[in-house]
Design goal:
single chain; alpha/beta; 8-stranded mixed sheet; 6-stranded parallel sheet; 15 helices; 15% strand; elongated
């Protein structure tokens, strides 16, 4: 007989699963990026509404406590699964069994029915969520963040295809999840068309931007603080350094821009904020490219910085360039606009939603550096449109709010719990 779960309140505790990256890491290198920001932001906001959130992540050091408070009502639970050191993502599938067993043990120490819902992030966590959801008889809500089939269709030079184990693993999670959360309508379509997801089971909940941190400020002051030249354009790239994100496109575009406009060479700067991500990646690849393109002295590389410092880079910039080959959303584009800095982005994935083409920035088809250079040159010449674009960027970013994301997720959790209850009751009546 099916277990009849509690009636009220619907969602009191959520088990979030983020196997491969901890919300305590600074995003911007390795595997820490938008997913970490997403998990932190929504967990804090759910907790402020009285929902307890436990985030299970793999322990990567013997110094990490078993559990650590991230904010009131939010705990990060370090799960021992495999060596206490960072592991490449490719090696994590071997640790999923140990990880899942440890999560099940943690729950078994609690009262029965402790968690009301599981929210897993990325396919590895979905695999854990699938088993825990069955064992605890609670719904599984899953967010993919990125999809192997989409990434593999947009590979660029130097990228490694996502392995088949991931493609199959994602399909399993799609089939098992009670609800899937997509960032955009486009991602929803991809889940349905590429993975056969039930359209009814996919909810679109856009991510947000923290406008308490990312808000406009004086460009001159930010440049002084960052020791950047006050006159002249500053072009910014922020993100994990890997071919998929296209940092090479920005370097080549800036080289083409100064070739077209030699007078810019004296004052223009390209700032690249972020660290290497993925096997074999390092910053030297990009330094060498900048030297090869003859703009080494114009490019400044900055290691990953926390949000309160990142905001200064956005404020200092004239434009942020996001030429990703694939992007499920692109939080960097939102953060930049929230600071009043227009974005020039590739028209891929969520970037087409994150940037309002021609108003809060520009969307470019493809990754031809010459095209990016032309758009930069055109926009740099038009001060009137630039001022309007800055205002529009702030307005556009204000449509995306983590509070709204948290409300959207809560509605998804409640719908999933309610559907489970209906089916529990139906099977109880059926077996009576
Ligand atoms: N980020 C950061 N410090 C850095 C570089 C990046 O905090 O030095 C954060 C950035 O603010 C953004 C996230 O990393 O929230 C990157 O998210 P995005 O969606 O742009 O890319 P992803 O990493 O998910 O591919």
């Amino acid at each position: 007989m099916a277990r009849l779960t509690r009636w009220w309140p619907v969602v009191r505790r959520v088990a979030m699963i983020a196997v491969h990256t901890s919300p305590l890491e600074i995003p911007g290198s390795g595997d820490a990026g938008g997913l970490n920001v997403y998990v932190c932001q929504v967990a804090r906001r759910l907790a402020r509404r009285g929902i307890e959130v436990d985030i299970f992540t793999r322990a990567t050091s013997a110094r990490q406590p078993v559990s650590q408070a991230l904010a009131p009502g939010v705990r990060v639970c370090h799960v021992i699964a495999g060596p206490l050191e960072p592991l490449p993502k490719d090696e994590l599938p071997q640790q999923l069994c140990a990880f899942t067993a440890a999560v099940l043990r943690a729950e078994a120490c609690r009262e029965q029915g402790w968690y009301d819902v599981i929210h897993s992030h990325y396919w590895l966590s979905g695999q854990v969520g699938m088993l825990a959801s069955r064992r605890w008889a609670v719904p599984l809500v899953h967010t993919m963040h990125t999809l192997a089939k989409v990434k593999n269709a947009t590979l660029t030079e130097g990228d490694r295809p996502e392995p088949q184990v991931r493609v199959v693993g994602e399909a399993e999670v799609v089939a098992a999840a009670d609800r899937l959360v997509a960032n955009t309508e486009g991602e929803r379509r991809q889940l349905v068309e590429l993975y056969g997801a039930d359209p009814e089971a996919v909810a679109v909940v856009p991510p947000g931007v923290d406008t308490a941190v990312f808000r406009p400020g004086l460009q001159e002051r930010a440049r002084r603080r960052l020791h950047l030249p006050e006159p002249g354009p500053v072009i910014l790239f922020v993100g994990r350094l890997q071919p998929l994100k296209g940092p090479d496109v920005v370097i080549r575009a800036v080289a083409e821009l100064v070739a077209k406009r030699p007078e810019l060479r004296a004052t223009l700067r390209l700032v690249i904020v972020g660290g290497p991500s993925g096997p074999g990646m390092d910053v030297e690849w990009l330094r060498a490219l900048a030297a090869e393109c003859g703009i080494a002295e114009l490019v400044r590389f900055e290691p990953p910085v926390p949000p309160h410092r990142l905001v200064e880079f956005y404020r200092a910039a004239t434009f942020t360039v996001v030429p990703s080959h694939s992007e499920s959303f692109g939080l960097v584009a939102l953060e930049s606009q929230a600071c009043g800095t227009p974005v020039i982005a590739a028209r891929v994935g969520g970037l087409a939603t994150a940037v309002q083409d021609g108003l809060s920035g520009r969307l470019i088809d493809g990754h031809d550096p010459g095209r990016y250079a032309s758009v930069l040159a055109e926009l740099l010449d038009d001060r009137v449109s630039y001022a309007a674009m800055r205002r529009r960027a702030v307005e556009h970013a204000s449509l995306f709010d983590w509070e709204r994301t948290a409300s959207g997720l809560l509605a998804v959790y409640e719908a999933a719990v309610a559907a489970r209850r209906r089916s529990d009751i139906a099977s109880l009546l059926g077996s009576a």
